């Protein structure tokens, strides 16, 4: 390569860096990819680099608690596992968009500030995650047991559903839920104990074993994480989920099939009814209105599924057999097929 050609490429690269730098400085959005590297101690690690210029992107904060949580560590790990455009400097279709205040920048590095305006979006074309992890925002529920003992448990924000998981051990979870009181910071996190509002929360992410109308049970394993918010870590998982082209009705229908295959017949019935309700508008009344002019077999399927659901919700007082779940899934498929071919009230995703 001649000196003239090398100098021309260097000038073009410098010009590109200046253009991107001006764009980042004005918009505050930096498109990045993930790169693997070895730390000075020889341990492998991951970092962000800016697309096109390949400048290192660092995220700083003066919040001591966030410094200790290593913000975005899970994000970098899963993005690296995804591969493709998330690890390629030149790919324009897949990237990690960091929206933040640009603190400083040079030709080698961009430093972003982690504050209330900080946000991350993952833009991907396809995903190999067949069943993406669920992320739910929870509050800590203080309750009194039958023996007058006091306990702590998790419930989902807004819905109030019980959220069950043990993580490493049941005692570890209890210590985690007790930590705000132990460290005397409860007064700084009042919304942590309130059903409504997302100012303070526990963010739980992972694979689910049960997803019913009153309980969400997480599977134990390496995917399970629970963090005290506000924090940016693991929130990206919903970005991965929403990019999948799947409606709420389709998701509940798929979950119903999964529950049936695992022999969880009560949960299969509940998920089947949720699939029909979301496809028809969101509630049991919406189903009735939506199927008012439907053929007799479709209307009867809707009624049968409603009756199956009413039996299934009385947990402990009734028994849901395999044939009940089979009937519910057949009824669900009949209604969903009718709704798909007769547009009306849209599915509320």
Write a structural description.
It is built from ten helices and 14 strands. It has 349 residues and is of the alpha+beta class. The chain has three domains: 10-123, no CATH class; 134-242, no CATH class; 248-341, Nucleotidyltransferases  domain 2 (Four Helix Bundle (Hemerythrin (Met), subunit A), Up-down Bundle), CATH 1.20.120. The strands form two sheets. The chain has a seven-stranded mixed beta sheet. It has a seven-stranded mixed beta sheet with strand order 12-13-10-9-8-11-14. It starts with a helix and ends in an 8-residue tail after the last helix. The radius of gyration is 25 Å and the shape is globular.
Order of helices and strands: HEEEHHEEEEEEEHEEEEHHHHHH
Please give the radius of gyration in angstroms.
25 Å
Number of strands: 14
Q: State the domain count.
A: 3
The portion of residues assigned to helices is 25-40%
Strand count, sense and barrel status of the largest sheet are: 7 strands, mixed
Low-confidence stretches at least 5 residues in length (pLDDT < 50)?
22-27, 65-70, 241-245, 345-349
**Averaged pLDDT, please?**
78
Main sheet strand line-up:
5-6-3-2-1-4-7
Features:
14 strands, 10 helices, disordered C terminus, Four Helix Bundle (Hemerythrin (Met), subunit A), single chain, 7-stranded mixed sheet, 349 residues, alpha+beta
């Amino acid at each position: 390569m001649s000196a003239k050609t090398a100098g021309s490429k260097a000038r073009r690269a410098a010009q590109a860096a200046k253009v991107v730098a001006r764009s980042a400085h004005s918009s505050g959005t930096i498109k990045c990819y993930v790169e693997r590297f070895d730390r000075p101690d020889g341990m492998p690690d991951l970092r962000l680099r800016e697309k096109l210029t390949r400048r290192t992107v660092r995220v700083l904060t003066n919040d001591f608690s966030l410094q200790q949580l290593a913000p975005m560590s899970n994000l970098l790990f899963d993005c690296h596992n995804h591969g493709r455009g998330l690890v390629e400097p030149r790919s324009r279709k897949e990237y990690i968009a960091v929206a933040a205040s640009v603190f400083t920048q040079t030709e080698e590095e961009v430093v972003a500030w982690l504050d209330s305006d900080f946000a991350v979006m993952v833009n991907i074309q396809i995903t190999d995650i067949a069943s993406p992890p669920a992320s739910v925002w929870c509050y800590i529920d203080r309750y009194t047991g039958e023996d007058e003992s006091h306990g702590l448990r998790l419930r989902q924000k807004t819905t109030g559903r019980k959220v069950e998981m043990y993580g490493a051990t049941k005692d570890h979870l209890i210590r985690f839920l007790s930590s705000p009181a132990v460290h005397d910071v409860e007064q700084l996190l009042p919304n942590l104990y309130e059903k409504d509002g997302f100012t303070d929360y526990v963010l739980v992410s992972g694979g689910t074993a049960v997803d019913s109308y009153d309980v969400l049970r997480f599977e134990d394993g390496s995917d399970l994480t629970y963090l005290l918010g506000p924090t940016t870590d693991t929130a990206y998982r919903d970005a991965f989920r929403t990019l999948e082209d799947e409606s709420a009705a389709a998701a509940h229908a798929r979950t119903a099939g999964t529950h049936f295959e695992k022999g969880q017949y009560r949960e299969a019935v509940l998920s089947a009814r949720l699939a029909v309700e979301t496809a028809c508008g969101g509630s049991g009344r919406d189903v009735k209105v939506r199927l008012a002019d439907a053929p007799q077999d479709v209307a009867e399927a809707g009624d049968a599924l409603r009756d199956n659901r009413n039996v299934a919700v009385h947990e402990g007082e009734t028994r849901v057999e395999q044939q009940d779940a089979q009937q519910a899934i057949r009824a669900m498929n009949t209604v969903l097929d009718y709704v798909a071919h007769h547009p009306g009230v849209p599915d509320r995703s």
